[in-house]
Amino acid sequence: MEGTIARWYAVSTAKDTTRFEAQLAQVRRLTGAGSAILEVAPGPGYLSIALAGTGDYTVTALDISETFVRIARGKAAEAGVEVDFRLGNASAMPFDDESFDFVICCAAFKNFSDPVGALQEMHRVLRPGGRALINDLRKDVSKEAVDRDVDEMRLRGLSKMFTRYVLRSVLPRRAYLKSEFAALIGHTRFRTFDIQETPLALDVELRK
Ligand SMILES: C[S@@+](CC[C@H](N)C(=O)[O-])C[C@H]1O[C@@H](n2cnc3c(N)ncnc32)[C@H](O)[C@@H]1O
């Protein structure tokens, strides 16, 4: 996503604070204060900024979109928090081995052109014992689950119609079933994982 569509996404997801609060709670459950966290594909950067704002974590984030990296850096400066927003590809990360305690990736994995490469990179940059959490739309999501989620986003008019259409009809085509995700993990060095299904998404927890 670049240009206008990235700017539209940044505005339309800004109000979805319920989602960021739930994600923050998941991170707190899975990693302790003092952790070095990497967010893969942060888009406008709201979750990374919220994580850094707790004062409990060192946060780095990596996105392939120049527009999003620019937007996210601006929002972090406005919020007065420090996040190292970097430009780069999830399947060729510009980080040393074993740099992070925790990796999080939300609403993005289905877009990766090299999903196994991205998982292998998450494994490489995690410290031994580190965990990754990937949250993304499930392929077999129901229209009712999408509608409930879109209602919670507090969007209006065309933005609401467009978001509902994309979530119902476009994104599920790229998304994974639980069994397909497990098969991808089977091609990586991760040996310990758990996949939970919510009405909307897959929550994939991986341990190095
Ligand atoms: C729908 S946005 C999700 C943004 C944010 N995580 C959220 O939950 O709102 C998908 C993001 O994935 C990023 N992305 C897609 N392919 C990528 C790749 N290969 N490496 C890094 N980021 C990628 C896009 O630039 C975009 O920021």
Automatic annotation (TrEMBL):
<dbReference type="GO" id="GO:0032259">
    <property type="term" value="P:methylation"/>
</dbReference>
<dbReference type="InterPro" id="IPR013216">
    <property type="entry name" value="Methyltransf_11"/>
</dbReference>
<feature type="domain" description="Methyltransferase type 11">
    <location>
        <begin position="38"/>
        <end position="134"/>
    </location>
</feature>
<dbReference type="InterPro" id="IPR050508">
    <property type="entry name" value="Methyltransf_Superfamily"/>
</dbReference>
<dbReference type="GO" id="GO:0008757">
    <property type="term" value="F:S-adenosylmethionine-dependent methyltransferase activity"/>
</dbReference>
<dbReference type="InterPro" id="IPR029063">
    <property type="entry name" value="SAM-dependent_MTases_sf"/>
</dbReference>
<protein>
    <submittedName>
        <fullName>Class I SAM-dependent methyltransferase</fullName>
    </submittedName>
</protein>
<keyword id="KW-0489">Methyltransferase</keyword>
<dbReference type="Pfam" id="PF08241">
    <property type="entry name" value="Methyltransf_11"/>
</dbReference>
<keyword id="KW-0808">Transferase</keyword>
